[in-house]
Amino acid sequence: MNPEDFKKLVNGYITTDITYDEPHVTMRCRENNITLDDVKRIVLDIDAELVRVVRDRSDVYKLYYRLSRHRELKVVIDLLTHKYVNIRAVKILNDRFQLGSIKRQRF
């Protein structure tokens, strides 16, 4: 599924159509300093910068939203229940620790 197809899929959804795994998602939101309401708003926002959608298993997707130049929000969702989006996990990714961001030195 590409990002445009996902945006069309959630176009008619509202915040009550989003469910989540109660203890796990709230703990992950607290660890990453983001509220659950912000995550719901980002998932339903058509104008949010959805970078890529990765299909993990049948009806389970990993969504990557660009928060800033060096940060992404990873949201794992499933579409197993009809007309509901279930949030399984939330994680903020920083790219400053990846090898691609190390500058080469000249010798």
Q: Numbering strands along the chain, what is their spatial order in the largest sheet? A: 1-5-4-3-2
What is the arithmetic mean of pLDDT? 87
Question: What value does the Rg take, in angstroms?
Answer: 15 Å
> Helix proportion of residues, in percent?
10-25%
Order of helices and strands: HEHHEEEE
Explain what the structure shows.
The chain has 107 residues and is α+β, with helices and mostly antiparallel strands. The chain contains three helices and five strands. It has helices at residues 3-9, 22-31, 36-44, and strands at 18-20, 50-57, 60-66, 71-78, 85-94. The protein has a five-stranded mixed sheet with strand order 1-5-4-3-2. β4 and β5 form a beta hairpin. The radius of gyration is 15 Å and the shape is globular.
Attribute tags:
3 helices, 5-stranded mixed sheet, alpha+beta, 107 residues, globular
Layout of helices and strands:
Layout: H1 3-9, E1 18-20, H2 22-31, H3 36-44, E2 50-57, E3 60-66, E4 71-78, E5 85-94
Parallel strand pairs: 1-5
Antiparallel strand pairs: 2-3, 3-4, 4-5
Summarize the structure.
By secondary structure, the chain is α+β, with helices and mostly antiparallel strands. 24% of the residues lie in helices and 34% in strands. The chain is built from 3 helices and 5 strands; from the N terminus they run αβααββββ.
